[in-house]
Specification:
This protein has 299 residues and is α+β, with helices and mostly antiparallel strands. It has three domains: 88 residues, Pseudouridine synthase (2-Layer Sandwich); 133 residues, Pseudouridine synthase, CATH 3.30.2350.10; 62 residues, Roll (Archaeosine Trna-guanine Transglycosylase, Chain: A, domain 4). 19% of the residues lie in helices and 35% in strands. The strands form four sheets. Strands 1, 2, 3, 4, 7, 10, 11, 12 and 13 form a nine-stranded mixed beta sheet that branches. It has a five-stranded mixed beta sheet with strand order 14-16-17-18-15. A two-stranded antiparallel sheet has the order 5-6.
């Protein structure tokens, strides 16, 4: 029971609930998820099983894509339609498409975001959402995120809603993005719908629902090395296979000669068709250094 599950999380289920479900279905204790989804959101939630749990951190660098709906005319304290309204403009008009696209362009690229107070961001070791529930106002620092693309799909004047696709880096809060873009338009705004359509190679069309997982069981597992395909692949020589598996670094003359690997670049290390584990390139010593060995003689 080693691999990833491309799980389709439904609205109302927490990411922790999804992990518990997989544990029960597969009868495997080593289960974890990558990229938390808010309970109200739906979509792709990569779940690691067995040895794959050691690779969760490598999905952090994978890009994420969402389809979101932004409701114009109200802003809430949580950033979505479950929160308390803190600003309202019932008579607002939906901006023209050209003006919306202009705002979208202004938020494309590297931007600064302040995560919402109702989030799992930790402030001095405590979750911001827990502090808010205790009546405190957490001081949340801004963070740098990157919006790769923003595409307007629908402009609904009668219901004052905008539907759009967004591709972004890890750590991006779509709730905050909706609020910030609404403010840029001069209109209170909040997120009213969110589905995550992709995390790296995990895409919505291939995801497995809870009902399908109960039928498929272990057949839903995807080989774990295929799920981190965004990381550069490296072939180690058969002569250094055992050394890598024993945690020893390997000098590579061709690697140095070609000089095409930057310092500390993360690597998926293979010997032939066998995935041995994760490593990185140490440019100073011109070696491939093992970080996590997943292959054993029993494999």
């Amino acid at each position: 029971m080693d691999g990833f599950i491309n799980f389709l999380k439904p609205p109302g289920m927490t990411s922790h609930d999804a992990v518990s479900l997989v544990r029960r279905v597969l009868r495997e204790k080593r289960v974890g998820h990558a990229g938390t989804l808010d309970p109200g959101a739906a979509g792709v939630l990569p779940i690691a099983v067995g040895k794959a749990t050691r690779l969760i951190e490598y999905l952090d660098t994978a890009g994420k894509s969402y389809r979101a709906e932004m409701m114009l005319g109200i802003e809430t304290d949580s950033g979505d339609d479950t929160g308390t309204v803190v600003a309202e403009a019932a008579d607002c008009a939906v901006p023209d498409e050209a003006d919306i696209i202009k705002v979208f362009k202004g938020f494309t690229g590297v931007i600064e975001q302040v995560p919402p107070a109702y989030s799992a961001i930790k402030i001095n070791g405590r979750r911001a959402c827990d502090l808010v529930r205790q009546g405190l106002t957490p001081d949340i620092p801004s963070r740098t995120v990157e919006i790769h693309s923003l595409i307007l799909l629908d402009r609904d004047e009668s219901n004052k809603r905008l539907l759009f696709d967004v591709s972004c880096s890890r750590g991006t809060y779509i709730r905050t993005l909706c609020q910030d873009m609404g403010r840029a338009m001069g209109i209170p705004a909040t997120m009213s719908f969110l589905v995550r359509t992709a995390v790296g190679s995990f895409i919505l069309q291939d995801s497995v629902s809870a009902e399908e997982l109960k039928v498929l069981g272990g057949e839903a597992l995807i080989p774990y090395d295929l799920c981190i395909g965004h990381i550069k692949k490296y072939q180690i020589s058969p002569a250094r296979r055992k050394a890598f598996c024993n945690g020893l670094s390997s000098f590579d003359r061709e690697l140095v000669k070609n000089n095409n690997f930057s310092n500390n670049i993360c690597l998926r290390v293979y010997c032939g068709e066998d995935f041995l584990g994760m490593g990185h390139y140490d440019a100073n010593n011109q070696t491939v250094v093992p970080d996590k060995v997943l292959w054993t003689d029993r494999d």
